[in-house]
TrEMBL record:
Converts cobyric acid to cobinamide by the addition of aminopropanol on the F carboxylic group. Belongs to the CobD/CbiB family. The gene is cobD. Its main location: membrane. Pathway: Cofactor biosynthesis; adenosylcobalamin biosynthesis. It comes from the Bacteria. This is Cobalamin biosynthesis protein CobD. Keywords: Cell membrane, Cobalamin biosynthesis, Membrane, Transmembrane, Transmembrane helix. GO terms for cellular component: plasma membrane. The chain crosses the membrane at residues 51-73, 80-98, 161-188, 222-241, 316-338. It is a multi-pass membrane protein. One of its GO terms (molecular function) is threonine-phosphate decarboxylase activity. It is found in: Cell membrane.
């Protein structure tokens, strides 16, 4: 159970505290190994087929390294010092969740918008999105923030939670697999980081990043749909409190109609719901590395977005976070009862 408590501790910490910028971070270490392997294999492989093969090697070696490191932490560090191991494991869980940091970065954009500084708004936005921001107006800056927060509900919160929870459930029935509680979310984070770094469809990364992008689609398939269910539940509760179900109806209708419009099979699951919630259109054409990428819009509404929507979408995500925590507490209670 100590591994499950480390998971809960890290999860709760991320509710209140963002990542420390100068503190060693697991994602930066993962990113360094991805970059190192990419540079190495680009020197060895030059053809499209070779780059495609090197992409598989990057995925294989990074999963092996970081999944193996997580396994060693859970199997050997606890034998050295239980308290030290617990604190270290808790800090790793804290780092693989991204809610507080995402809120902090998105609120930077919000404050820049409120101060009527378009250049500062674009610069702050560039820290959390992959698209070019140098030509966006305020409306599209706000929409980009909303899209990013909605998409990262799955990537940055629910997906690592899902795999840590899955590991906890498996370990409850087989204690020899207790290491899965940390290993599964670390592997997920490794895959997701690879997709973020090399999973682009442009000329430079199309072949070398294809394996990472496809694997990321696979590992996010279930978490994205769990995210949608949680999000719809939260919006239903909010609608119930307000005594009006218009926003819930709009969210549900947009989800049913637009959840597969996105080029990703997963990103549209939550973005469609948020588009319906705000009764607006999200996504659409965007520039990446100076090139226009044509994209379909998500949502039927035409309501103009406001800067305050950034606060509202973050609050919705925090409500969803609370639901996940409640689920974990229930699971924890069941585990204690049956063990």
């Amino acid at each position: 159970m100590i591994h499950f408590f480390a998971f809960l501790c890290g999860f709760i910490l991320d509710f209140f505290i963002r990542d420390f910028e100068k503190f060693p971070h697991i994602v930066r270490f993962i990113g360094n190994t991805i970059s190192a392997f990419e540079k190495l294999f680009r020197k060895v492989f030059k053809s499209d087929t070779g780059l495609l093969f090197s992409g598989f090697l990057i995925v294989f070696f990074n999963i092996l390294i970081w999944g193996g490191a997580a396994y060693l932490i859970d199997t050997f560090l606890y034998k050295v010092n239980t308290l030290l191991a617990f604190l270290f494991e808790s800090s790793l869980f804290f780092q693989i969740f991204a809610k507080a940091s995402l809120r902090f970065e998105s609120m930077k954009v919000y404050h820049a918008i409120k101060s009527n500084d378009i250049e500062k708004s674009r610069k702050a936005l560039s820290m959390i999105v992959g698209r070019d921001t140098d030509r966006l107006d305020y409306e599209h800056i706000i929409k980009a923030v909303i899209e990013t927060v909605a998409e990262n509900m799955s990537d940055g919160i629910v997906a690592p939670w899902f795999y840590a929870t899955l590991g906890s459930i498996i370990a409850a029935f087989n204690t020899e697999l207790i290491w899965l509680i940390l290993v599964l979310p670390i592997i997920y984070k490794t895959v997701n980081t690879m997709d973020s770094m090399i999973g682009y469809k442009d000329e430079k990364y199309f072949y070398i990043g294809k394996a990472a992008a496809k694997l990321d689609d696979i590992v996010n398939f279930l978490p994205a749909r769990v995210s949608a269910i949680i999000l719809l539940f939260v919006i239903f509760i909010l609608s119930l409190v307000k005594g009006s179900f218009i926003t819930f109806t709009n969210s549900l209708q947009a989800f049913i109609k637009y959840r597969y419009v996105h080029s990703s099979p997963n990103a549209g699951q939550t973005e469609s719901i948020i588009a319906g919630f705000f009764n607006t259109k999200l996504l659409g054409d965007a520039y990446y590395f100076g090139k226009l990428v044509k994209k379909k819009s998500i949502g039927d509404g035409n309501a103009a977005v406001k800067a305050d929507y950034i606060i509202e979408v973050n609050n919705i995500m925090y409500f969803a976070y609370t639901v996940l925590l409640i689920i974990n507490l229930i699971i924890g209670g069941i585990i204690c009862f049956i063990s």
